[in-house]
Every structure is written in structure tokens, then in C-alpha cells.
Design a protein that fits this description.
Shape: globular
Largest sheet: 5 strands, mixed, barrel
Number of domains: 2
Helix content: 25-40%
Length: about 300
């Protein structure tokens, strides 16, 4: 009887097949049954969250032990006549204290908000973090961080600070005045207008930098931040508009119709005449497919399609 029961149930077992495999949405996620073949949808390969952000880099002590070790290292350095930040820099620039530089928690602040914890992809790049530390910081200080956004930092990494980690590949450190002075002055700006040009460029830079929620982690914000520090034509156009009695009234970013295999965004600048209220628009296209954005189309007049 048992053999008959087994033979009778065998066809049902062959038809049912093996149990469905388990798949996960991401590492560490709960396993869920795979969809049936008829319901399976093709999925795009996951894309890293790239970061191109503007802010300031500041070190923090991750725990009391490192803070005490840092104090002992500082006692071995003659800091007579130095203020606290100068003494701090003296410690982190001493080759004997490289181990402390690696133990420090390097925080990236955007508009004075602790936004990321920075970790270099290459340990040799801790030197970029050291160079970003200013003895006399000011509101004009700018650090540009280019990297990949990772998971939220564990509680023991930076004294409980729960913000995303950014594994960076490049850091640029400068001040706003140096950036403005490095901008190429367009031919249409006369010698007597250079000071006004610098002032207009500074105003535009500040407007873009202070846009709400610009953490440099979306394609739109990465494109804007890239243009802000790498493309001088947007400042020249702003000056020309001002000389035409127009004001910058809007900056919009959207996916370009050119996007296909590659991700291209279009940044549109709107200038409105102060008397006629007529608005002219100019756009520039930026490829943000990978970690380093680049220009696709130069700034030119934009027409609604």
C-alpha cells in the first residue's frame, strides 16, 4: 500500500518542480520568493549613488580614547604661541602621527549641517583631508568632494553620528575668492566692468550653493555643483544679463531628451527683464552617467520644445 501511495504521488511531485529560489533586494535584506516567470520584469543593473558635493571638511574625535591619545601626541610638540587649530594642525601634519589621522572621523558639512563621513578609497589620500583643515576657517572656505555614497555609518565610527559614508576619490580645497578670481572674464566685459563681473559671479555662486537640499547626491545637484566650480560661462552669461537689465529668476534641471544609454541632464537658467518681464532662457547639458560629470553641450539659448 505504501509503495502504491508513493507511485501515485510521484507525478504530482514531478509537476510541482523544485521550490522557488530566494532573491534579495540588496545585501542584508530579507529573502523573498522570486516572482513567477510570467511576472518577471527585466531590471536595470544597480547604479552607485555618486556624490559631487560642496561644503567644508572638519575632523572629529570618534571616541574618548582617540581624543586622549591625540592630547598625548600634542604634548610632544612645541605649541608655544599657537592657537588651538594651529596646534591641532601641527599634530596631524607630523608624519609620526599618521596613525591618528586615520583614526579621526572626517565629517563633511554642507551649510553647517553634518552630512557625510568621509573615507578615502586609497589610504594615501588621507593627505587630502589633512590639507583641507584650515588654521583660520572662514565662510569662504570650499571643499569639493567627489566619490560614492555608501551605507549609514555605524554608531561606533564617529561617536554616534548617524550619517552616510562617502568613499571619496578626489577632494579639492580652495576659497571662494580664489575661485572667482580664476573665472575667465568673457570678452564682452570691459576692464572697468571686471569688478562688477566678479560680484555678479559671487552672487550666482552663492545662490546655487544655497539651493535647498543640495547634498550633491542627485544627478541634478551633481550637475549644478560641477558647473559651479568648473564652467565659467554661466557666470559670463549672468553678467551679460545684468548688463541687459535682467535678473536671474530661475535655475531648473531635468533629464535631457538625449538621455538613453547615458544619463544627461539639462540645466536651464532663466533671466527676466526688470521692466518688460520678458524671460530669456539658456541651457547647458551635462553627462552625469559616471562619477565624474562632463560637459555635453555648451551654454546656448533654450527654446521650449
Amino acid at each position: 500500500m505504501e509503495s502504491e501511495a508513493r507511485s501515485a504521488s510521484a507525478p504530482e511531485e514531478r509537476e510541482s518542480g523544485p521550490p522557488p529560489p530566494l532573491v534579495t533586494e540588496e545585501p542584508g535584506a530579507l529573502a523573498t520568493p522570486a516572482a513567477r516567470p510570467a511576472e518577471t520584469q527585466p531590471s536595470e543593473p544597480s547604479r552607485p549613488t555618486y556624490v559631487y558635493a560642496l561644503g567644508q571638511i572638519e575632523p572629529r574625535f570618534p571616541n574618548l580614547g582617540i581624543e586622549k591619545e591625540f592630547t598625548q601626541a600634542g604634548a610632544r610638540i612645541d605649541s608655544t604661541g599657537l592657537n588651538d587649530r594651529q596646534a591641532f594642525r601641527a599634530v596631524i601634519t607630523d608624519p609620526a602621527n599618521r596613525y591618528l589621522v586615520r583614526h579621526l572621523c572626517w565629517v563633511f558639512l554642507i551649510q553647517q549641517m553634518e552630512t557625510y563621513i568621509l573615507v578615502p578609497r586609497d589610504p594615501a589620500d588621507y593627505g587630502l583631508l589633512v590639507e583641507a583643515f584650515r588654521e583660520n576657517p572662514s565662510g569662504d572656505d570650499i571643499d569639493v568632494v567627489i566619490g560614492v555614497k555608501a551605507q549609514i555609518a555605524p554608531a561606533d565610527m564617529c561617536n554616534g553620528l548617524a550619517v552616510p559614508i562617502v568613499v571619496f576619490d578626489q577632494v579639492y580645497s580652495f576659497d571662494r575668492t580664489s575661485l572667482m578670481n580664476a573665472i575667465t572674464v568673457p570678452p564682452s566685459v570691459g576692464d572697468k566692468q571686471i569688478a562688477a563681473f566678479r560680484q555678479t559671479a559671487t552672487s550666482l555662486f552663492d545662490e546655487i550653493r544655497q539651493m535647498a537640499d543640495n547634498a550633491g547626491a542627485t544627478d541634478e545637484h551633481r550637475a549644478l555643483n560641477y558647473l559651479t566650480v568648473r564652467y565659467s560661462d554661466i557666470y559670463g552669461r549672468a553678467t551679460e544679463a545684468q548688463n541687459e537689465n535682467s535678473s536671474l529668476t530661475g535655475v531648473d534641471v531635468h533629464v535631457s531628451p538625449l538621455s538613453g544609454v547615458r544619463k544627461v541632464v539639462e540645466v536651464i537658467f532663466s533671466y527676466t527683464h526688470r521692466q518688460t518681464d520678458v524671460t530669456d532662457q539658456y541651457s547647458v547639458q551635462v553627462d552625469v552617467s559616471e562619477e565624474y560629470p562632463f560637459l555635453v553641450r555648451k551654454l546656448s539659448r533654450y527654446f521650449h520644445r
